[in-house]
Amino acid sequence: MIERYTLPAMGKIWNDENKFRIWLEIEILACEAQAEWGIVPKEALNVIREKGNFNVARILEIEHEVKHDVIAFLTNVGEYVGPESRFIHLGMTSSDVLDTALAVQMKQSGELLLKGMESLKEVLARRAKEFKNTVMIGRTHGIHAEPITFGLKLALWYAETVRDIERLNAALKTISVGKISGAVGTYQHLDPFVERYVCEKLGLQPAPISTQVLQRDRHAEFMNTLAVCGCSLEKFATEIRHLQKTEVLEAEEYFSKGQKGSSAMPHKRNPIICERVAGLARILRSNALAAMENVALWHERDISHSSVERIIVPDSCILLDFILHDMTNIIDRLLVYPEHMTRNLHATRGLIFSQEVLLALTRKGMKREDAYRMVQEQAMKVWKEEKDFKALLLGSEELMKILSPKEIDEIFDPKRSLKHIEYIFEHAGIR
């Protein structure tokens, strides 16, 4: 069983304590870099390293007065450091700290999300193998089509999760970039060495070019990747919701002892977690749209993006982490009913083998159009008169001149659908 979701792991990344801790690290690293060039005295650097600290409540108190978060932060750090604080933030602009720190937080979040995606992938692989040969009906347009297995459905989700992991890795690379290039990105009051030094220490790449800010196409890519991951989870959840319908009931969310599904109807067992996943995925998509709106800024920078990002980036990271955990738990404990799958497989009285009959006739030399007409004629009788498809075929003089009863028996064996299961699993990377 997957452990119960708790917020702190992801939530701590986005709390003020972690944010200001990264800000302080950036400022100290910038001092270290400038000390190597003789701009910051070694003695001052030692004091900054030793005394550098902050208090969240004090920063917020100062910000209430000055209306500027970075100034409030620097003022509070200066209260700890003393006169040597004059060497902190030399030649830098606020966004050197803000954007580089945001990149670190997004990187931390992305790495945590990757661990969650890997957990989901492992659960999907295990359960796909468990139900590799569990035959069920495949549906297109919501209508019974041909047999598949429940393992194939889970293997499909596994392969999509692998792609989501690849997408997230690519987005992490895109966003793991910092900038310490000054007010308009020209390094007028800094040497580019400072940027290279700080970024290397933080595990980031220096931006090839920046303005006052990192360009927001990077953030849009990251946010859209989170939204696509959410789309995958919503897709899985929606399918389970369909399978849990009373008239289908092939799979079902785990329903714990003492759980209640409805305040009015004691019999209800509703797919509430899947519905929650589907609902929250919509917020991820909305936030991705907001991130794309942030790409176009005035000239070298405006702050129209800033207020938006303070909401959408933490919220999306926390949201995806939450529903990813939800979906992993759902798959891990999913109740599966093979006997209901078998029942539903035969619900259309054999119509799901119509293509097999069609192909058998064409292999015997019949024109496809004629074979289609012959099979459809019998199939429509099944729909309208609720008769058995195989019995109708065996009763057709025209068809029995072409196919033998033994050949028809073979056609109606659902196991024929399983002959390439091993190939598909191997091709999907499940071994």
Question: What does this entry look like structurally?
Answer:
This protein is mostly helical. The chain has helices at 8-11, 16-36, 42-51, 56-66, 69-81, 94-130, 150-175, 192-202, 217-243, 272-293, 304-333, 338-345, 354-363, 368-385, 389-394, 397-400, 405-411, 421-428, and strands at 135-140, 143-149, 177-178, 205-206, 251-252, 335-336. A hairpin with a 2-residue loop joins strand 1 and strand 2 (143-149). Helix 2 crosses helix 8 (192-202), helix 6 runs antiparallel to helix 7 and helix 7 runs parallel beside helix 18.
Which structural traits does this protein have?
Ribonucleotide Reductase Protein R1, domain 1; 431 residues; Fumarase C, Chain B, domain 1; Fumarase C, Chain A, domain 2; mainly alpha; 6 strands; two-stranded parallel ribbon; elongated; two-stranded antiparallel sheet; 63% helix; 3 domains
